[in-house]
């Protein structure tokens, strides 16, 4: 079955630690996205990538980093510089990069601070 | 600037009631797309519908229907004869032609609770 797999489902971060969230898709989609969701809020874009080896900052990129070395993978690192990392993180992908493309989402990773 | 407003934070209904979720948007684009997503308790966002700005026909899919009105910048979602499985958070989202990529602007969501 084609889809987007995010792992782990739950993640705990200690003070000063970097953690990496995994996102893998087998839809052969070109573009991938990372969103952050806080309680009672909509989704906010962290980073996006339209092609391999290229990515752009979204609205709230500070304290996060990404890589796109393979088409199917778009990992997100939450660095120690992100002072309020507790949130639900969602990865998405689209076949193309235009505004009409439908974003398909993974099941998310819930990150908490110990 | 693009903005999506979902004024209803939470709606509670009893099974079999009809319910309408409101979505009002703002954009300066002449070509844009509107979306609805469902987020069940599991967390994954599930795509429900996409509508482009040139297509104002209402759409019906089973118990779901959507009313798009450009005159009032609204794209409302109605569930007929609601069921417990409809309990979820529903998001309305907007993408514009001039962003250069598929950037979705989300509303804050409406939590729907359907009780038996």
Q: Could you characterize what this model shows?
A:
The complex is a heterodimer of chains A (114) and B (116). Chain A is mostly beta strands and 114 residues long. Chain A has strands spanning 4-7, 10-13, 19-25, 31-37, 43-51, 54-57, 64-66, 76-78, 87-94, 104-105, 109-113. Helix content of chain A is 0%, strand content 49%. In chain A, the strands form two sheets. In chain A, strands 2, 4, 5, 6, 9, 10 and 11 form a seven-stranded mixed sheet that branches. In chain A, strands 1-3-8-7 form a four-stranded antiparallel sheet, with no helix packed on it. In chain A, strand 5 (43-51) and strand 6 (54-57) form a beta hairpin. The model of chain A has no long low-confidence stretch (mean pLDDT 93). In chain B, 34% of the residues are buried. At the A-B interface, strand 5, strand 9 and strand 10 of A face strand 5, strand 6 and strand 10 of B.
- Percentage of helical residues of chain B? under 10%
How far the N terminus sits from the C terminus of chain B, by CA atoms, comes to 41 Å
Largest inter-chain interface?
A-B, 29 and 30 residues
Q: pLDDT average of chain B, as an integer?
A: 92
Label the structural class of chain B: mainly beta
Low-confidence stretches of chain B: none
CA gyration radius of chain B, whole angstroms? 14 Å
Oligomer: heterodimer
N-C termini distance of chain A: 35 Å
How does the helix and strand content of chain A classify structurally? mainly beta
Helices of chain A, by number, come to: 0
Rg of chain A, nearest Å: 13 Å
- Which band does the percent of strand residues of chain A land in? over 45%
H/E element sequence of chain A: EEEEEEEEEEE
Summarize model confidence as the mean pLDDT of chain A.
93
How is the main sheet of chain A built? 7 strands, mixed
Number of helices of chain B: 0
So what's the overall shape of chain B?
globular
Strand percentage of chain B: over 45%
Could you give a short account of the major beta sheet of chain B? 6 strands, mixed
């Amino acid at each position: 079955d084609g889809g987007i797999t995010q792992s782990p489902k739950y993640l705990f971060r200690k003070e000063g630690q970097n953690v990496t969230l995994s996102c893998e898709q087998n839809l052969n989609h070109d573009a991938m996205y990372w969103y952050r969701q806080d309680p009672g809020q909509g989704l906010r874009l962290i980073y996006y990538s339209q092609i391999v080896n290229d990515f752009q900052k979204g609205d709230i990129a500070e304290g996060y980093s990404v890589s796109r070395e393979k088409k199917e993978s778009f990992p997100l690192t939450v660095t120690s510089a992100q002072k309020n990392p507790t949130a639900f993180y969602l990865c998405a992908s689209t076949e193309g990069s235009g505004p009409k493309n439908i974003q398909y989402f993974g099941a998310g990773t819930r990150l908490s601070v110990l | 600037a693009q903005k999506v407003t979902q004024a209803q934070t939470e709606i509670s209904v009893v099974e079999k009631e009809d319910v309408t979720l409101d979505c009002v948007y703002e954009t300066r684009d002449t070509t844009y797309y509107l979306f609805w997503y469902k987020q069940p308790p599991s967390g994954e966002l599930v795509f429900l519908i996409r509508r482009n700005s040139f297509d104002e026909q209402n759409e019906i899919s089973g118990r779901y229907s959507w009313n798009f009105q450009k005159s009032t910048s609204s794209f409302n979602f109605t569930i007929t004869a609601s069921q417990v499985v409809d309990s979820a958070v529903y998001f309305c989202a907007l993408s514009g032609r001039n962003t250069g990529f598929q950037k979705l602007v989300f509303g804050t969501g409406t939590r729907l609770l359907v009780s038996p």
